[in-house]
Amino acid sequence: MGETGRTSRRDAALRRCSWATGPDEAMRQYHDTEWGTPNHDSRSLFELLSLELMQSGLSWQTVLHKRPAFIKAFHNFDVHTVMDMDSHIDLLLLDAGIIRNRRKIQAIITNANAVAHLEDTGTSFATYVWQFVDGKPITNHFPDHSQSPCRTPLSDKMSKRMKEDGFSFVGPVVAYSFMEAAGLVNDHETACFRHQEL
């Protein structure tokens, strides 16, 4: 049997979080390689924050499938390019590839400016984000993902601080989803192979 056949069989045998067990390969790939993995790259963290706020009120699957279009529309989420995109909002609202919500698009631009301001004061976005967990991921032990919270006192604190520091559309629920995505919190189900790996 070829390498691809062995990989597919091994892949099929893996125990995953319940939300990643469906037929959507993009969801499985995101679960297996990215979600919950500690992320210390400032550009990548800005991208995740942007996608998480775009998800508000929608499914993550919708956002994930539009991710390539978001990356193109927001110039690979380069903070210094995005911070100057106010004049592009009307054009972005015509882009059927992304989620066309003026408030959310404006929030991404506002947040790019907040990140740039942090950098100007000598703090990377990664350093800023990881301070909320003292640099160490929090590992939870939920048998089922439905048991994980939508928000916590820590995400309340993070949300409040981020708003004070100029960030927009970062309520406690968005903040907690971002913490899960960026690996500040390991909310993989306890039986999931990624829970043990992380």
3D structure, described in words:
Mean pLDDT is 94; it is low at 1-9. The chain is globular and about 50 Å long. It has 11 helices and 2 strands. It is mostly helical. It has a single domain (41-197), classed as Hypothetical protein, domain 2 (Endonuclease III, domain 1). It has helices at residues 3-13, 25-33, 42-55, 60-73, 79-82, 89-92, 102-120, 125-130, 153-164, 172-181, 193-197, and strands at 138-139, 185-186.
> What is the alpha-carbon Rg in Å?
17 Å
Global shape = globular
How many domain units?
Answer: 1
Would you report the number of β strands? 2
% residues in beta strands: under 5%
CATH topology: Endonuclease III, domain 1
What is the string of SSEs from the N terminus onward? HHHHHHHHEHHEH
Based on helices, strands and strand pairing, what is the structural class? mainly alpha
Taking strands numbered 1, 2, ... along the chain, how are they ordered across the largest sheet?
Answer: 1-2
Cα distance, first to last residue?
Answer: 31 Å
Going by CATH, the homologous superfamily would be Hypothetical protein, domain 2
- What profile does the largest beta sheet have? 2 strands, parallel
* Contiguous helical run count: 11
What is the highest CATH level, the class? Mainly Alpha
Catalogue the unreliable spans. 1-9
Approximately how much helix is present in the residues? 40-55%
- Give the overall average pLDDT: 94
Known CATH architecture: Orthogonal Bundle
EC number: 6.3.5.2
InterPro entries: Adenine_glyco (IPR005019), DNA-3mA_glycosylase (IPR052891), DNA_glycosylase (IPR011257)
Keywords: Ligase, Metal-binding, Zinc
Binding site for Zn(2+): 17, 31, 188, 192
